[in-house]
Design goal:
The radius of gyration is 12 Å and the shape is globular. The protein is mainly alpha-helical. It has one domain. It is built from 5 helices and no strands. The relative contact order is 0.16. Helix 4 packs across helix 5.
Length: 73
Amino acid sequence: MSLEEYVKEKLWPILVETVHALVMYANHKAYTREVVLHENPDVTPQDLAARLGIPLGEALVILYELENEKGLK
């Protein structure tokens, strides 16, 4: 499933809210932006989750938000 398909799911807003409440979320997002995406711009949510030892849901939200941030610049 693509990121866009996940976003269309009814429970997406609940997943985002839950991920934002995670203590390490901001650090994981910053590390992904500053390190992981520079090394591998095409990293998959599954690969990111495995690399950082985080839930797949957190990886999905991080990559979705970073992708949208790129579009705003």
